[in-house]
Amino acid sequence: MSPVASKIRGRDCRRTGRIGSLRAAAKALVLARDLIGGPAKMVKIMIGSIDQNPAPKRIVLGSDAQTMIHKTLTEHLTALEAWKDLAFSTDSPKST
């Protein structure tokens, strides 16, 4: 990508914003060289998912991904439950 093509409104998209963050994270993973998952296994599973009916909306690949997603969803569920009474308090009374 040319330097001109990568600039939008004076921002270098390769280093800033969401794309820059994703590139930095991917580069850090590659440099760490401690990846748990096997790319060939992952691709095989992705391609195989096409034939499933219904096809999965999401596929979690790798024990590290499973652990991280489980932790995050558990935290979200805990926060949701903490505000349950407040959420329910906004319901209209049932008609009799």
Can you describe this structure in just a few lines?
The chain has 96 residues and is mainly alpha-helical. The chain has 4 helices and 2 strands, in the order E-E-H-H-H-H. The longest helix has 20 residues, at 63-82.
Which helices and strands, and how do they pair?
Blueprint: E1 7-8, E2 11-12, H1 17-32, H2 39-49, H3 63-82, H4 84-89
Write a structural description:
The chain is mostly helical. It has one domain. It contains 4 helices and 2 strands. Strand 1 and strand 2 form a beta hairpin. The chain is extended, with a radius of gyration of 21 Å. The termini are far apart. 0% of the residues are buried. The N terminus is likely disordered.
Counting structural domains, the number is: 1
Poorly predicted ranges? 1-9
**Main β-sheet: number of strands, strand sense, barrel status?**
2 strands, antiparallel
The largest sheet has its strands arranged as: 1-2
Oligomeric composition of the shown chains: single chain
What is the string of SSEs from the N terminus onward?
EEHHHH
Overall shape: extended
The level of helicity is 55-70%
Radius of gyration of CA atoms, rounded to a whole number: 21 Å
Ends apart, CA distance between termini: 66 Å
Average pLDDT over all residues = 78
Number of strands: 2
Strand content: under 5%
* Tally of helical runs: 4
Question: Helix- and strand-based class?
Answer: mainly alpha
